[in-house]
């Protein structure tokens, strides 16, 4: 469905954020992308949704195709109409709009009134709070509430392919669990998902396939379950040294052991 | 340095070249060409007036020579009615011009007054405010606004359109022009026991409903205006709508021929009296013909008459200086101050001479809108009203 | 009393015209977060076109074409300039509209020249009287039209998705685009509508009791500014209330000039701004504007 | 930056603590040499150039001072102000009143204190600052465009006062400004007569140097300020007031101070304006002036001190120069000839320039200049290197594409 | 409280406890906080946890003076935080890293960090504008410390990068670094590891531990990453719907049925698929039953 081929992306012509990434999101699958801060995950999503230009980024080479269409020259609104919807990083809800209006805005991409009504019901069911707070201004929600709104908003478009940039950001553990379920549920209903996550436990839990990005390149890829067993993923993303007691993770000096001196003017 | 020798010579540039070797010259005369400066407004609020006056100036000097010898070239610069620009442009032209044929706008004239004085420049402003008479070398082309409006009152009293003890509503622009006109009204009011209702507006105010409503409520017998044509049109429409059937007296900038195309035309033709320092076209058909021949696209206003008039006065000054054998700036200034009884052949009211602080003339025409070229006919030839002497100082 | 009523009516009808222009500001601001300084010259363009076309093609066709021209001009400004400046700082956007304004205004003033162009309204300079109190017919019609249009837009914002799209894309263009909102279209439409409103306002503005089309029609936009702000820049109803307040304040200040003498002559022109500042001190986002929210 | 992506370096601890240089951009020798050169040219100019240019120069210097001041307020602190013309007026009127004599031409019965011009200048700057300080509590309540339009009110109120308070301001016609003088040395045409290398140093020449010194001082002060603790606080205020206050910035006080400083700049600029024209009038302090100043800082590049100076030069000199050399420009006819008047052509060009700069160089003239500078530094350098340097240093002037501190969005 | 001792002898003398008493905050109908009380012992790492919208950030807003409490008191030693303005609170050494990043995107990391030094430095407009030597000197001294802190939080190589172009995780680091740059006595961290992966989280946890022990200050931490909270905190306060529902050591809190119900949920609810190593769940659900909070190294 979505295929990315040896993609190179730079910002301002200088910062090479994505370097030769190839990736597939097969129809009906959930694909997770892991990677440390600055690995290029967000950049990847921006390229797909067509917002790269707004950040002075550019595709240097390679291609991104959605089915038969090349996404390179599309603008974001067109992309949405093709059924690709992205939940941007850092929530980006419309602070001055009410919760309800935020959800309405999410449905702007489709004409189908019934589909929208169904989507709205589903969102309300998923996040009852969004119904309760329908007339509250978006900016006043707590961080996590905003995140729920951001996800709900994206679901309003009933996408074919959902791009999620760290949906679990700032959510309470219980809700993260729910998000995992929601993703699985959406997927069951036929939506493919490309999931960028830091919470690897959740991501690898729902994903069929996974990629690990490292400084702009794919360092690992394959079946999500298999990947979860590899040393690197265990250590970097699941938070334990393989084979050792998981509880000890916190004690292993994974840091460089930096010291901080006291300040005296 | 490139600059040292050039201006170090201190103005020997002309050196009295050419045939008229006995005439002394300094700045702004080269061979048989005199350069005069024009700081006009071709793009600002008074662009229309500026164009007409400037065109008339140009036309005049195409057909006239000083002393039958010197042709006159104009250095026309457009200030857009911005003082800053005016000052800058003057600094650019001042080393090349003998005198200023025209400077538009009280603010620019005021800003340049010290410069003109220092540079011994003779200048003709196209404004009639009293302040301008205080600048040495600056020659107002006719009576000042206060005298003008007072003469207008004289006419109305004479014709029985206004009586002692009546009430007058006066709308005036903030600033010199408006205040000067108002001073005229006040002076007359004092003499004749008029009650005056004053309403000050800005030049950008177009809707006179509130003011006229106020006048109607007070039952005025006359509306006096020192404003611009736009406000006049509004006053006329509102007065007509409210049935305020009283004469309207305005000073010369109030009227423009374009008004006769508007809805107020009828009312204006029967109610408006304009006191003016210049005559109308119907008295000077040849002026109009010449102008229309030269600028076929233009719809000439009375600014044209003003332009011809001020050029005529300038010519008389320069001729006199030339006869005195002194076409230096100082010489021109002397000739200007010695001027007496200037007659422009009926274009402009007779000028009695230029004396600091005094209105150069005591006379005015009274015009009324009519369907004639230029849009106005002469109701009264140049005359001196009963209040003029006292106000003019 | 008569005077008071006259001034009141006059203020209301003047306010209606301000409100039309202010509504244009509001719509543009809502859709693109641009404070449009082009409005003054759009207004003048509308007035000029109507005046110039009236003679050759007749009044009503001229109105249609004139309004269309104004809308087209607004559309072009959006397409050629504003559209390319997504995400630029508010001030830059404002300045660029000033650039457009300078060009358009220069051209119009050049064309209008010394003339006061007359617009031959079929309703002429007549006035509608109730007892001693009169109001110009032109103004009366303007008031009705303004009320109708403003009501229309009020409903449109409330019940159509257009309003939501506009506000969403104004607040965060990138995210709005991610929701499939065609930002370009939303904003272009807003400009067109604002252009139409300016055209309609111009039509009435240059009728009785104002003399006709002269360059100073332009400055009216400067008074619609405080009207829009006073009502709250993102509020349709605010534009109406703001317009009326400014119209009334101006009318009364001019009509009762003598009673206000202690403030200096010609104080009427300052009044709209004084009223505006006064209101803003108590309601920093205007009477009906949404308050700026910041949460951390 | 590009290295970080090239090598697969994990965040390394190598190097230890490094002191933080004020501006750690590579500085070549070129810059100081160019600066000295420019200064020498500026100093020598009055020897060669005619009065028109010198006067234009002084007007530009005045505008530079004003634009830098406005930029501190708008560009740096994000307080949109359309009141700049008002503060200019306060400075100009104060100067004229304090240093001018009573009397004067016309109906106006002018009063003046007749004090030394230097005192007038200082009073102008201080009073203007005070006006800014008084307005700051109102300003503190308002934001963005609301503040902008409210401040517009000041301009209209100012106009009203200028027109009405005739004894001080000269009313509608204004009044003339006394010559500047410094400890007995006047900046007029004579007194003392002065010749340098045979060139008579008259008012225009003298004012040029005065302007140069004042503008330079204003520039340096603002530049230093921006790179300091106070400058950072102001910049944070623009991005998020809450964040600034939580980090220890007294928001009210800083807002008041920046209004104070900005309007002091405006006051100085106003005094220079009065000197440049030789008189003041209400017309000179209208709304257009405020707008022109905004145009200066946007064209120059918001937030950049040098940019403000460039913008001021562009906006204030262009129309004058165009006006003066109108005859040499195609399509422009004389009056009545049906063609464009020079002033109109100048306005078209000006409007067009504004649009083009904003469209194609969002970082303003400063951005443009920066690009030239980089070109000069590595002429013909490989495409990649020049691009990479463009990316790193343009970010210091340009507005980031995704401002992170907008409350609702992050 | 026994946990206070975990900080050891390194606690700075001038660090008083934070006493929060009956604090309530309302927004219209929403009760963001109702009568919340707890106490932060000097030199401890004190976590506040709770579901989304429980009022954690609101508590921070009260502590840093952004919101006014409708009722109740907040004392930090002799200072009444509930009566002070934000900048005054910063002045007495309370620093905060924001949940929703609030940095100046156009400025470099270094400049953002230098803002943290604001209340420690003095140079005013005049000193700065004239570049008086004392201002320059001050800038240098503090610049060194800023560089040190940046290095400590792994931002050393990004000092001159504009913050706006950094990735989300790096921006969070800058937030923490900026707060640290104020040399706080009380450090408030709102979700410092949001957007970081496990390894990065562990490094940040390590850094926080080091901050507490090296500087001997109190840290209040809001975080949803239970693994981190449980291993790092000395004391945990749990909020739900604006009310305090539990307060105690991590071990105590984790067992609290109320907390499990409202916040943690049961294990299987959280882990939707068993794909990952079952042990991994421990990381996010806080099954560190045997684990006592880490002692600072
Ligand atoms: N607008 C931009 N201009 C320049 N560089 C950028 C820009 N946006 C991102 N970068 C750089 O590109 C690289 C990849 O960033 P990206 O945001 O894609 O990372 P990420 O994997 O999403 O990280 P995180 O997990 O922290 O969100 C980083 O080095 C970042 O600094
Ligand atoms: N200024 C405000 N106006 C109205 N409601 C507010 C305001 N600030 C916070 N709230 C509400 O108060 C509640 C608590 O918000 P708070 O931000 O403290 O939650 P939180 O515990 O930090 O949640 P999260 O973990 O999701 O960040 C939320 O429901 C929020 O909507
Ligand atoms: Mg990211
Ligand atoms: Mg929170």
TrEMBL record, chain A:
The keyword Ubl conjugation does not apply. GO terms for molecular function: ATP binding; ATP hydrolysis activity; branched-chain amino acid transmembrane transporter activity. It comes from the Bacteria. It holds the Pfam family ABC_tran. The keyword Transport applies. Keywords: Amino-acid transport, ATP-binding, Nucleotide-binding, Transport. SMART domains: AAA (SM00382). GO terms for biological process: L-amino acid transport. InterPro entries: AAA+_ATPase, ABC_transporter-like_ATP-bd, ABC_transporter-like_CS, BCAA_Transport_ATP-bd_LivF, P-loop_NTPase. Residues 2-240 form the ABC transporter domain. Transmembrane segments: none annotated. Belongs to the ABC transporter superfamily. This is Branched-chain amino acid transport ATP-binding protein LivF.
């Amino acid at each position: 469905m979505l295929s990315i081929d040896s993609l190179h992306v730079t910002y301002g012509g200088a910062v090479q954020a994505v370097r030769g990434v190839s990736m597939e999101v097969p129809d009906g699958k959930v694909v997770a992308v892991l990677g440390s801060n600055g690995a290029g995950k967000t950049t990847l999503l921006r390229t797909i949704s067509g917002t790269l230009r707004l950040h002075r980024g550019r595709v240097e080479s390679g291609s991104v195709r959605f089915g038969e269409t090349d996404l390179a020259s599309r603008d974001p609104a067109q992309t949405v109409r093709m059924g690709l919807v992205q939940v941007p990083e850092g929530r980006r809800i419309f602070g001055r709009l009410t919760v309800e209006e935020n959800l309405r805005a999410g449905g702007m991409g489709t004409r189908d009134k019934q589909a929208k009504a169904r989507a709205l019901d589903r969102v309300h069911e998923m996040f009852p709070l969004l119904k309760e707070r329908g007339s509250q201004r978006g900016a006043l929600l707590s961080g996590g509430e905003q995140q729920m709104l951001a996800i709900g908003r994206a679901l309003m478009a009933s996408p074919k392919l959902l791009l999620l940039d760290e949906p679990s950001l700032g959510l309470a553990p219980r809700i993260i669990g729910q998000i995992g379920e929601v993703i699985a549920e959406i997927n069951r209903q036929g939506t493919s998902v490309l999931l960028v996550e830091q919470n690897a436990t959740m991501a690898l839990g729902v994903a069929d396939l996974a990629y690990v990005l490292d400084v702009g390149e794919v360092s690992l890829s394959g079946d999500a379950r298999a990947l979860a067993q590899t040393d690197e993923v265990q250590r970097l993303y699941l938070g334990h040294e393989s084979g050792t007691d998981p509880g000890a993770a916190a004690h292993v000096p994974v840091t460089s052991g930096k010291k901080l001196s006291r300040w005296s003017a | 340095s490139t600059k040292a020798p050039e201006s170090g010579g201190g103005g020997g540039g002309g050196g009295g070249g050419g045939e008229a070797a006995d005439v002394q010259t300094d700045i702004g005369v080269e061979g048989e060409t005199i350069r005069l400066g024009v700081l006009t407004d071709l793009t600002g609020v008074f662009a229309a007036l500026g164009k007409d006056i400037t065109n008339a100036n140009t036309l005049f000097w195409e057909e006239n020579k000083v002393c039958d010898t010197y042709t006159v070239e104009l250095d026309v610069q457009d200030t857009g009615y911005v003082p800053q620009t005016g000052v800058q442009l003057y600094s650019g032209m001042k080393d090349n011009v003998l005198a200023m044929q025209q400077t538009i706008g009280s603010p620019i004239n005021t800003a340049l007054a010290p410069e003109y004085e220092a540079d011994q420049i003779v200048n003709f402003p196209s404004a009639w405010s009293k302040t301008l008479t205080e600048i040495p070398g600056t020659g107002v082309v006719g009576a000042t606004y206060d005298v003008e409006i007072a003469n207008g009152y004289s006419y109305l009293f004479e014709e029985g359109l206004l009586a002692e003890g009546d009430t007058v509503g006066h709308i005036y622009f903030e600033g010199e022009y408006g205040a000067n006109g108002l001073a005229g009204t006040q002076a007359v009011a004092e003499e004749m026991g008029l009650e005056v209702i004053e309403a000050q507006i800005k030049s950008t105010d177009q809707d006179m409903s509130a003011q006229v409503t106020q006048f109607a409520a007070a039952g005025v017998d006359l509306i006096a205006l020192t404003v611009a044509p736009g406000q006049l049109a509004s006053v006329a429409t509102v007065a007509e709508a409210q049935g305020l059937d009283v004469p309207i007296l305005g000073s010369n900038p109030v009227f423009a021929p374009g008004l006769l195309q508007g809805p107020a035309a009828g009312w204006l033709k029967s109610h408006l009296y304009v006191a003016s320092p210049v005559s109308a076209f119907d008295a000077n058909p040849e002026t109009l013909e010449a102008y229309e021949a030269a600028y076929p696209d233009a719809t000439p206003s009375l600014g044209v008459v003003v332009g011809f008039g001020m050029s005529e006065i300038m010519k008389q000054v320069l001729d006199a200086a030339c006869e005195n054998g002194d076409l230096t700036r100082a010489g021109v200034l002397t000739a200007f101050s010695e001027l007496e009884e200037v007659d422009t052949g009926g274009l402009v009211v007779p000028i009695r001479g230029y004396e600091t602080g005094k209105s150069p003339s005591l006379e005015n025409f009274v015009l009324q809108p009519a369907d004639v070229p230029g849009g106005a006919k002469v109701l009264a030839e140049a005359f001196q009203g009963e209040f003029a002497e006292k106000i003019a100082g | 009393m008569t005077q008071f009523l006259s001034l009141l009516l006059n203020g209301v009808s003047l306010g209606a015209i301000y409100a039309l222009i202010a509504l244009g500001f509001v719509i543009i601001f809502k859709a693109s977060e641009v404070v449009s300084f082009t409005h003054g010259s759009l207004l003048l363009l509308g007035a000029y076109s109507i005046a110039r076309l009236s003679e050759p093609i007749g009044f009503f066709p001229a109105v249609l074409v004139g309004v269309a021209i104004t809308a087209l001009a607004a559309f072009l400004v959006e397409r050629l300039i504003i559209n390319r400046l997504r995400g630029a700082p508010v001030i830059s956007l404002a300045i660029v509209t000033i650039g457009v304004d300078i060009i358009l205004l220069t051209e119009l003033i050049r064309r209008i020249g010394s003339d006061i162009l007359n617009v031959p309204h079929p309703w002429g300079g007549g006035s509608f009287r109730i007892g001693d109190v009169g109001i110009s017919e032109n103004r009366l019609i303007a008031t009705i039209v303004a009320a109708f249009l403003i009501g229309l837009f009020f409903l449109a914002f409330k019940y159509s998705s257009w309003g939501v799209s506009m506000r969403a894309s104004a607040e965060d263009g990138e995210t709005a685009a991610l929701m499939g909102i065609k930002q370009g279209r939303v904003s272009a439409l807003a400009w067109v509508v604002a252009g139409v409103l300016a055209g309609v306002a111009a039509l009435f503005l240059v009728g009785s009791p104002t003399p006709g089309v002269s360059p100073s029609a332009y400055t009216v936009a400067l008074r619609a500014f405080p009207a829009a702000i006073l009502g709250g820049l993102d509020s349709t109803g605010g534009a109406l209330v703001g317009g009326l307040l400014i119209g009334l304040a101006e009318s009364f200040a001019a009509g009762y000039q003598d009673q206000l003498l202690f403030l200096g002559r010609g104080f009427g022109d300052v009044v709209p701004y004084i009223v505006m500042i006064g209101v803003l001190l108590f309601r920093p986002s205007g009477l009906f504007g949404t308050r700026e929210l910041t949460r951390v | 930056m590009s290295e970080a992506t090239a090598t697969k370096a994990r965040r390394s601890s190598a190097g230890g603590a490094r002191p933080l240089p004020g501006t750690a951009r590579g500085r070549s020798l070129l810059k100081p040499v160019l600066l000295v050169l420019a200064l020498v040219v500026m100093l020598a100019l009055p020897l060669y150039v005619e009065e028109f240019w010198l006067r234009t120069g002084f007007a530009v210097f005045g505008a530079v001072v004003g634009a830098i001041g406005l930029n501190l307020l708008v560009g740096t602190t994000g307080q949109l102000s359309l009141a700049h013309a008002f503060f200019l007026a306060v400075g100009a009127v104060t100067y004229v009143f304090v240093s001018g004599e009573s009397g004067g031409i016309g109906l106006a019965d002018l009063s003046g204190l007749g004090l030394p011009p230097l005192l007038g200048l200082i009073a102008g700057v201080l009073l203007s600052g005070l006006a800014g300080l008084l307005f700051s509590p109102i300003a503190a309540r308002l934001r963005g465009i609301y503040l902008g339009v409210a401040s517009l009110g000041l301009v209209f109120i100012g106009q009203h006062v200028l027109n009405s308070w005739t004894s001080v301001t000269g009313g509608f016609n204004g009044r003339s400004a006394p010559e500047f003088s410094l400890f007995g040395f006047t900046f007029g045409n004579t007194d003392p007569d002065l010749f340098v290398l045979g060139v008579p140093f008259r008012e225009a020449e003298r004012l040029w140097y005065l302007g140069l010194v004042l503008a330079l001082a204003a520039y340096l002060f603002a530049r230093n300020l921006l790179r300091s603790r106070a400058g950072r606080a102001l910049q944070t205020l623009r991005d998020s007031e809450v964040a600034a206050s939580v980090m220890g910035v007294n928001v009210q006080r800083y807002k008041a101070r920046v209004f104070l400083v900005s309007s002091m700049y405006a006051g100085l600029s106003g005094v220079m304006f009065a000197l440049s024209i030789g008189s003041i009038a209400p017309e000179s302090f209208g709304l257009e002036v405020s707008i022109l100043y905004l145009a200066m800082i946007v064209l120059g590049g918001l937030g950049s001190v040098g940019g403000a100076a460039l913008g001021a030069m562009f906006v204030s000199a262009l129309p004058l120069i165009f006006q003066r050399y109108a005859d040499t420009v195609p399509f422009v006819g004389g009056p009545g000839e049906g063609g464009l008047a020079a002033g109109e052509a100048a306005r078209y060009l000006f409007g067009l320039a504004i649009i083009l700069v904003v469209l194609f160089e969002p970082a303003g003239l400063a951005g443009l200049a920066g690009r030239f500078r980089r070109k000069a530094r590595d002429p013909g350098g490989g495409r990649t290197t020049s691009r990479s340097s463009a990316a790193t240093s343009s970010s210091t002037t340009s507005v980031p594409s995704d401002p992170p501190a907008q409350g609702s969005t992050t | 409280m026994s946990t206070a001792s975990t900080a050891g002898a390194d606690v700075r003398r001038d660090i008083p406890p934070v006493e929060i008493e009956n604090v309530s905050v309302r927004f219209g109908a929403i009760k963001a906080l109702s009568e919340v009380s707890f106490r932060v012992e000097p030199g401890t790492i004190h976590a506040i946890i709770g579901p989304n919208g429980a009022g954690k950030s609101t508590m921070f807003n009260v502590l840093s003076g952004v919101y006014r409490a409708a009722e109740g008191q907040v004392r930090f030693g002799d200072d009444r935080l509930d009566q002070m303005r934000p900048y005054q609170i910063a002045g007495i050494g309370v620093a905060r890293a924001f949940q929703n990043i609030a940095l100046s995107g156009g400025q470099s990391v270094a400049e953002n960090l230098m803002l943290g030094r604001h209340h420690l430095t003095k140079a005013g407009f005049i000193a700065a504008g004239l570049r008086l030597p004392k201002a320059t000197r001050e800038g240098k001294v503090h610049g060194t410390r800023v560089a040190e802190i940046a290095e400590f939080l792994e931002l050393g190589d990004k000092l001159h990068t504009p913050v706006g172009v950094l990735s989300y995780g790096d921006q969070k680091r800058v937030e923490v670094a900026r707060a640290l740059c104020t040399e706080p006595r009380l450090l408030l961290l709102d979700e410092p590891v949001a957007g970081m992966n496990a390894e990065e989280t562990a490094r940040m946890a390590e850094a926080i531990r080091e901050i507490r022990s090296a500087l001997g200050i109190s840290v209040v931490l809001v975080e949803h990453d239970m693994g981190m909270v449980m291993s790092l905190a000395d004391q945990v306060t749990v909020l739900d719907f604006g009310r305090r529902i539990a307060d105690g050591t991590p071990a105590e809190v984790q067992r609290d049925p109320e907390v499990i119900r409202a916040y943690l949920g049961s294990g299987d609810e959280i882990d939707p698929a068993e794909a990952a190593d079952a042990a991994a769940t421990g990381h996010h659900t806080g099954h560190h039953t045997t684990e006592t909070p880490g002692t600072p190294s």
